[in-house]
Amino acid sequence: MDDLIADFHIHSSYSHDSFMSPESIVKRAKKVGLTCIAITDHGTIAGGVEGKKEAGRYGVEVIAGAEIKTDCGDIIGLNLHREIGATSWQAVISEIHAQGGIVVLPHPYHDHDSVEEIAQCVDFIECWNSRCTPEENKKAGSLANRSGKKSIYGSDAHSISEIGLVKVRLQLNPFNVGEVIFSLPTPPWKIRTSQIISLVKKHEYRQLMHQGGRFLWKKKF
Predict the structure, then answer these.
(1) Model confidence, pTM
(2) What's the pLDDT band for 119 if we cut at 50, 70, 90?
């Protein structure tokens, strides 16, 4: 099989902070030149499982994954076929490996503790996340080098226009992430967009109005 062009970190409407259907994600991936994506919803593989059903229709390989909130920060599992029930980071990693999955430490310098210890136990470290700052991504790359771990890259897309902000070349057999073909950091307003989506989906309209007022107050015209 030829090498694939991939984005390894995408959220669908099965996450609390995205409206994208799995089908719309796969369709968009095809449009922007991706041939492989990982749908990694918060706490569930449901989006990835649904997305895999659209893979043949659009000619895009879909990896079912999940981004699990643990006691030390998020852990991503790829190639999953069962939900992860654990919450401690050690147990989450064990559950992922037990079903033959791949463990990724995403955005290690954004809301994580004990990154040096966790890094020793994962398979890949996310060294470019489009929602992180260049400084955070640089530190993640250094962490991968110190830990002797392979690098992986993802857009962390929560909206259609973010899909494919990172494109990397992927070898499936053996599973290996090669060169970065294209990468672009997400503008700060994109992060606010996912926060707004989360509030809308939770019907927290009072908080939404408050956040909107704060944004307008800070905006320079």
Answers:
(1) 0.82
(2) very high
